[in-house]
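Below is how a single chain appears once it has passed through the pipeline. First comes the sequence as given, then the structure the pipeline wrote out for it. We keep one example in the README because the format questions we get most often are answered faster by looking than by reading.
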Amino acid sequence: MKRFTLILQTMMKFSWMKSDDPRYSEEKQLLRQACFRSLIHHLEDHTRAVFEFATIWCDKHDTIDGIEQGFQDYLRSYAENAYANS
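Resulting structure:
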């Protein structure tokens, strides 16, 4: 967990992430970090989904309230779409 936090903090210091783009503001980066912390127990089985969902969540929300239910809904929707396309 400490290593993961260190990686995110290091990423936040990169100059390419310091722009006028609101997606890379310090607040949004801290929100993204909180998203990963909240969903860390899903990373082993759903790594890609966690990263994709965290991006979507941060674009639409300012807190992590309801993130677990949101992720479960995202997984369900993802599975239903994959089944429908097969």
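Residues 23-84 form one domain.

See the next section for the split statistics.
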